[in-house]
Design a protein that fits this description.
CATH topology of the largest domain: TIM Barrel
Distance between the termini: 44 Å
Strand content: 5-15%
Helix content: 40-55%
Radius of gyration: 23 Å
Shape: globular
Largest sheet: 6 strands, parallel
CATH superfamily of the largest domain: Aldolase class I
Strand order of the largest sheet: 2-1-3-4-5-6
Structural class: alpha/beta
Number of strands: 14
Mean pLDDT: 96
Number of domains: 3
CATH architecture of the largest domain: Alpha-Beta Barrel
């Protein structure tokens, strides 16, 4: 049996880092972790290939080589996924689809030969058994949640790691919170399921052994869902592993704002090599937080929480939303002021959309306000329901936020605000890579000489060089990220 794994094209959006990747000569930010894990679950004697369409073109000969083409995608990759399915159908090769896109919208893919809903650890074994016995079904839909302690180590030998800016890994699934607009609990449940420390370290060993040195993204939707296990088992083991290996990785993950309540946890994360966390702030408006059931963010001085996390050595990337029913026109300036004061450099602001299966989606259907499915683009100028605020005012206000926070003046001011708060600890000796040297000189040319932001670039350049030289490389990285963000929004 020959299996071709295909990861569809990820469009040029906020999180693609398309324009930033050119500075370091990389093709994509992260490899397709889901498909690499699924590949490891297939019988060892089956032939396996993987085509990440963000790295290389999918050729007809690749498809014709396979008995089955496995496709996994997120909603934002739906257009490319549809093209892959159509090509396979035209060439007479059967398709197998799974992952978030197909689990949430399986009714739109009736022409896919086999659809595996929910988590692969549950559905894939039944499919493999049926296919070997010649009785494979169209849809596999098993109830319950997977025991992720049984998840295998991803099959890293299917990709060229040099093409990616970072690697990724998963420690847990699920989130204890239940925000109305979020589909994580729909897909993975509210009880965090975790791997054990031995399993996690084996996965890190695998990355280390293939020669990876650099960033590793823990893709968990809420890394701190089980704080007790992190503090007592996972992080102490990870701290020891990193020290033994002389700190080959730096880690980034996602967490809820209540991370700021636990000083011990923040200290352990930083000692283990974490330097960045993405936090769903959503809105500075208390009524809108109540509306969307973001209870963990209520009754807090959110800016103080952010700065506390920064002071402990973790950069905070923030997710923000406008378009809640409780929002009025004052929210746009409130949002700008909050982002600037907090020093959240990577501030992803999007319009509220309702993913399938969420409580928000069901409420909007009941109110007759749902218009269509969401695009999956967090920062696209689209909204899939009828908002309470006048639509034109909402779109104009949203554009005002984006134009302001990503203007060179405001963006570079925010970088300096952050660098003044950021207190990282030093772990090991970090060697400078050739790609980083090349990125530096490209930034000087593109941003410092050619770019319209050159005045602010040089201001940050010399400020960081003399005021906080240890953070100078990070300042240059932020300059490159800012260029990417501006280019993305210019093309909207």
């Amino acid at each position: 049996m020959k299996i071709l794994m295909v990861y569809p094209t990820y469009p040029n959006t906020y999180w693609s880092f398309h324009y930033a990747l050119k500075f370091i000569s990389k093709k994509a930010a992260f490899p397709p972790l889901g498909l690499l894990t699924i590949a490891a679950m297939l019988p060892a004697h089956w032939g396996k290939k993987l085509v990440d369409m963000n790295i290389t073109k999918l050729k007809d000969k690749d498809i014709l080589w396979a008995d089955y083409v496995f496709i996994s995608a997120m909603v934002i990759q739906s257009k490319s996924a549809r093209q892959v399915i159509d090509r396979c159908k035209a060439l007479g090769v059967k398709t197998v689809a799974g992952g978030p896109l197909f689990t949430s919208s399986y009714d739109e893919y009736g022409d896919v030969d086999h659809i595996l809903l929910n988590e692969g650890e549950i559905t894939l074994p039944h499919f493999i058994s049926d296919i070997e016995n010649g009785k494979a079904k169209h849809i596999y839909n098993e109830s319950g949640w997977a025991d992720i302690e049984k998840a295998p180590i991803p099959l890293w030998n299917l990709i060229d790691i040099k093409k990616y800016a970072s690697m990724n890994i998963q420690y847990s699934r699920g989130c204890p919170f239940n925000c109305d607009f979020c589909n994580i609990t729909v897909l993975y449940g509210r009880t965090p399921r975790t791997k054990n420390s031995s399993q996690l370290l084996k996965e890190l060993d695998a990355l280390y052994e293939i020669g990876w040195k650099g960033g590793v993204f823990f893709v968990d939707d809420n890394f701190i869902g089980n704080k007790k296990k992190l503090k007592e088992e996972i992080l102490p083991e990870l701290i020891n592993w990193m020290a033994e290996k002389k700190y080959p990785f730096s880690f980034i993950t996602e967490a809820s704002i209540n991370l700021s309540d636990d000083e011990e946890l923040m200290q352990l994360m930083v000692k283990a090599g974490f330097d960045t966390v993405f936090v769903g702030i959503e809105t500075p408006d208390e009524d809108s937080l109540i509306e969307c059931n973001k209870l963990q963010n209520k009754n807090r001085d959110l800016i103080s929480c952010v700065k506390k996390i920064q002071n402990y050595g973790l950069q905070v990337q923030g997710g923000f939303i406008v378009g809640f029913d409780n929002d009025n026109v004052s929210i746009f300036d409130k949002m700008v002021n909050f982002i600037q004061e907090s020093g959240i450099v990577t501030a992803m602001v999007g319009l509220l959309n309702a993913p399938k299966g969420t409580r928000l989606y069901k409420r909007l259907v009941g109110e007759g306000r749902l218009l269509n499915d969401m695009s999956g683009d967090n920062t696209g100028f689209t909204i899939n329901f009828i908002p309470k605020m006048n639509r034109e005012k909402l779109l104009t206000g949203y554009k005002h936020i984006i134009d302001t926070i990503y203007s060179p003046k405001h963006y570079y001011e925010r970088v300096i605000t952050f660098l003044k708060e950021y207190k990282p600890i030093k772990l090991g000796v970090q060697k400078i890579k050739l790609t980083e040297i090349a990125a530096f000189f490209r930034s000087v040319l593109k941003l410092g000489i050619i770019g319209k932001e050159r005045f602010y670039y040089w201001k940050l350049f010399f400020w960081s060089l003399f005021k906080c030289p240890r953070l100078f490389p990070l300042a240059i990285s932020f300059s490159i990220y800012g260029y990417h963000f501006r280019k993305v929004f210019e093309n909207e």
